[in-house]
Design goal:
Blueprint (H helix, E strand, L loop, with lengths): L1 H9 L11 H6 L2 H6 L4 H6 L8 H5 L6 H15 L8 H10 L6 E3 L6 E4 L3 H5 L1 H14 L4 E4 L4 H5 L3 H17 L4 E4 L2 H10 L4 E4 H6 L14 E4 L8 H13 L4 E3 L23 H13 L4 E3 L2 H8 L4 E3 H5 L12 H13 L4
Parallel strand pairs: 2-3, 2-4, 4-5, 6-7, 6-8, 8-9
Antiparallel strand pairs: 1-3
């Protein structure tokens, strides 16, 4: 692969990306991995990478090792040399989330902008979806709501054709209804839509809400909180800052984790690594929990919240913005997630 040849030539194996990454500590520098070529075993090793982009952020040469690892996944999938059975739960989740039973297009008259909350937030925090939507409609009554899946799971597993089918159906439907702007709550959806949704203006719901003052809400805690920036938003400083602006406006005292912003860590769920390296989520989320030092953790990613909740009290930023919920210490069950999504699908929102 050309991307591997380029990595061999440009990567100096300085070790900057290896130090914070358990995957690279086991596999070697990006150049060393690239030199092993496209043998099936080497292609399969890329499924141990979370695709979180921390290696890209710290590379002094400005390289994108995570891009190479995604390309390796794509080639492994295309050649059929990866066993997809361990990823069945994720792929089934994606497939079911696209079923008409859980899809919804709420498009008011004159609507050109829709709120796209993604998959995790409707399943774990349907009240937050309703609350965010109501805040948005105060700014613009014509804002719509679309419940669907962007296909990020297939994308990150390297299943190019499957992702393209999912994504093209979604954007085709939005375009046919005259939608030109998408407001996202999920940083993963935001990244996918920005990278592949040509013709759409994509911005986070947090940036939109931060542009106008919100009514003060009662903080869930009077002590300091720490913010875990989701890795898909690693390079999205505007989204990161908007979350902080909104939470400070709600009266929260924010302190930073040792790893935040550009250098944030993956919670362990990135890239479905758990399917090939069980225990990754527990290991990585424990690192973030240790950095929190007992302070409540807030994140703008539903998947991060569920993973971190097993280690430390965690809340979604939307919980705090709408003044509901609490700092949870346990993930939401799978059955409850589907029930939440079903109720949201048929609830009255307008």
């Amino acid at each position: 692969m050309a991307v591997m040849e380029e990595m061999v030539q440009a990567c100096t194996s300085c070790g900057e990306c290896v130090r914070p990454c358990g995957f690279l500590q086991q596999q070697g520098t990006p150049a060393q991995i690239a030199r092993r070529g496209t043998a099936p075993d080497n292609l399969r090793c890329a499924f141990g990478c979370s695709l979180c982009g921390l290696c890209d952020a710290v590379c002094p040469e400005g390289l994108s090792p995570s891009g190479m690892f995604l390309s390796m996944r794509q080639q492994a999938a295309a050649q059929g040399v990866v066993d997809l059975r361990p990823y069945t739960p994720w792929l089934n989740y994606e497939r079911m989330g696209r079923h008409p039973l859980f899809q919804r297009d709420l498009i008011p008259r004159g609507c050109t902008t829709v709120f796209f909350p993604g998959c995790s937030l409707p399943g774990t925090r349907p009240a937050a979806v309703r609350g965010l939507y109501h805040l948005l409609t105060r700014q613009d009554p014509a804002i719509g709501l679309v419940l669907d899946c962007c296909g990020k799971i297939s994308h990150d597993l390297g299943l190019i054709e499957r992702f393209q089918q999912i994504f093209s159906k979604l954007v085709g439907r939005l375009r046919s209804q005259g939608i030109t702007k998408i407001l996202t709550a999920c940083p993963g959806c935001s990244k996918v839509l920005k990278n592949y949704g040509a013709g759409f203006e994509v911005t986070s719901v947090y940036e939109t809400l931060a542009a106008q003052p919100l009514e003060p809400c009662r903080p869930l805690t009077l002590g300091p909180i720490v913010i875990h920036d989701p890795c898909p938003a690693r390079f999205d400083a505007a989204q990161q800052q908007a979350v902080r602006t909104l939470l400070r406006g709600c009266g929260y005292q924010i302190e930073e984790l040792a790893s935040s912003g550009l250098h944030t860590r993956c919670c362990g769920q990135g890239g479905m690594v758990e399917g090939s390296v069980p225990g990754t989520a527990a290991k990585e989320s424990a690192i973030i929990s240790n950095q929190a030092k007992g302070r409540p953790v807030v994140s703008s990613c539903g998947a991060c919240c569920e993973t971190l909740a097993a280690q430390t009290p965690t809340a979604h930023s939307a919980d705090l913005l709408i003044g509901s919920g609490s700092f949870s210490s346990s993930p939401v069950s799978s059955a409850r997630r589907w029930l939440n999504r079903l109720k949201l699908r048929f609830s009255r929102l307008s």
